[in-house]
Amino acid sequence: MDSNPPGSTPSPQDPQLVAKLRGLERMWVAGLIDEGTYRAKLEQLQAQIDRGGAAPAAPTPAPVLRREAPPVPPRPEAPAPPPLVVSTPPPPPPVAAPAPTPSAAERPAAVREVLPAEPAAAPAPTGPPGLRGVVVASAITLGVLLAAAVITVLVLRAHSTGTVSDLSFTPVPTRTPDAVSALSAQRIAPASLPGVVMDASDAEKLVRAYWPVREGVLSRHDTLSVRELETGAAAQWDSVGCSIGCARLSPRTLNAVNVFVPKQATYPAAFLAEVLTTEYQHSSTTMVELMIFTRPAADAPWSLALDTGYTGVDSLHEFPVPLEGGAFDDAAPQVNGVDQHALPAMLAAYLQHWIVSGSAPPGSPLRDGSFTSTQGQALHEQVLEDRANGIADTISYSPGVASDGLWTFAVKEEVTGGETGSLAMTCGVVRYAAVANPARSGANLVQGQGFSPFGTLLQPGAYRSVTELGLHQSCFVSGTGLPGIVVVGNNGSAVRATGVSARS
After folding, report:
1. How far from 208 is each of 242, 275, 280, 318, CA to CA, in Å?
2. For the chain, what are the domain ranges?
3. pLDDT value for 243
4. Which DSSP string corresponds to 433-459?
5. What is the pLDDT of residue 416?
6. Is the previous residue joined to 116 through a cis bond, with omega within 30 degrees of 0?
7. Closest among 331, 254, 326 to 289, alpha carbons compared
């Protein structure tokens, strides 16, 4: 029942208005729109609230189903969401660097009344919005085993970057060929040591030269150059791009790097780089980026094939297991009871079980953490939230395709009093397909002019169904004697969205 008197602030149970308010604020927090655009659109919503009007219904004869973009606040596992409560969200807790999130005092009064309270602020995405999507970030700490903490979960539809209809949908990126060509010679150069593809010294030099070029390309949203620097899942995700309301990002600094280079005499070849850097939106917050570089043949360059990472640490914690004076590293160990080739499939089945059952599969060797149980819970809650709003989701997870690749390296972890023995870090890809259908016969799914709820990969319009294809890049740490397998990183999001038009 609407308890608001006539002419007062609209009820917070108006899903369109709530979605617009939350979506606008999240776009600013993620750095997808500048402050001027944020303030202007906020004033428009305030004016609408002052007039006592709700968001206009979409011009379609069929019932309109809308929802908020994820993430959603924690909710009980029930068939319907709890009623929204009119309340003023508390201001965000103080942090070392000024946070971009507007405090409660900065929001107009009516907006504060309409916007439901949200969970405590979590770390910002660990990559450029649009180009890098949104990931789950985690701190990794080792005593006797690895544990995950400090999280941000945005599950699907991470490219919902638009808030207004007068911005272009697909801007043409400005290509910067000089930046890419400057690396050409180094990317195809032979190793300094004879008889091998790459040694540790040359690998570190390549990473240090590659880093500022790629950061510049990403900061300019130059998706054409991304395709020249990257391959596989990394290129597929990073080249999706930001298409509206794109904030200019500042390139990050490489603060430290470790490389993991097994001895390889033939192609294809690969090595792992672990880079200490910072988050894009909070330059005082450190993060670790895990990067797999590959070279398929002597006449092909080194390219970035997989990229993921985590926050919450201020130094590098993984170290190589060197051989022959440090020029190369030990081969990856075989871990008793762990089929490293099956790890992406294991994670896909784990997330699928969460979606269907709301729990981890019984007896799973994957340890609870930010990229497992927390991610699974968020997926399950999203399905419940969508169903409560009249949208039926079918989400299917599967291991990456053969071209995505799978790599395993020997690593040591820093622990109190020294380092662990040799562990195995395996990195690969998990893919998903999410199909959204109206839960009610005769209804349509409407993609608004602000590209909500399905993001900028789907043109505005009315649809009978929407299909999103996406990927996540993760690494798995296992070792003999470790209680379970730890999942590290989850970079990725939707890379393609298609819809069946309601007019067809």
Report:
1. 26, 10, 18, 18
2. 15-56+75-118, 177-501
3. 59
4. EEEEEESSTT-EEEE-TT-TTT-TTS-
5. 72
6. no
7. 254
What tokens appear for 383 in the block?
A: 């399905």
Whole-angstrom Cα distance, residue 444 to residue 433?
20
Could you tell me the two tokens for 79? 């068939």
Question: What phi, psi does 234 have (nearest 5°)?
Answer: -60, -45
Q: Which residues, other chains included, contact 47 with Cβ-Cβ below 8 Å and sequence gap of 6+?
A: none
Indicate the DSSP class of residue 366.
B
Can you give the pLDDT at residue 324?
78
Give residue 289's identity as a one-letter amino acid code: E
**Cα distance between residue 280 and residue 135, in whole Å:** 12
CB 136 within 8 A of CB 372: no
Contact 443, 63 (CB under 8 A): yes
Nearest to 472 by CA among 289, 227, 308, 274: 308
Q: Which amino acid is at 275?
A: V
> Both tokens of residue 285?
């917050």
Rg (CA), the chain: 23
Contact 328, 262 (CB under 8 A): yes
Nearest in space to 232 (alpha carbons), one of 456, 491, 498: 491
- The pTM for the full model equals 0.70
Tokens of 398: 């599967």
> How are the residues of the chain apportioned to helix, strand and coil, as percentages rounded to the nearest 5?
25, 25, 50
Phi, psi of 294 (to 5 degrees): -130, 155
Looking up tokens 């007068």 gives 166
Beta strands in 298-345 (DSSP E): 303-311, 318-320, 322-323, 328-329
Alpha-carbon torsion angle 346, 352, 354, 358, nearest 10: -150
For 294-327, the pLDDT digits (tens) are: 999 999 999 999 999 999 889 998 999 999 788 9
User: How many beta carbons lie within 10 A of that of residue 498, not counting itself?
Assistant: 13
Task: Give which of 98, 87, 105 is closest to 121, Cα–Cα.
Answer: 98
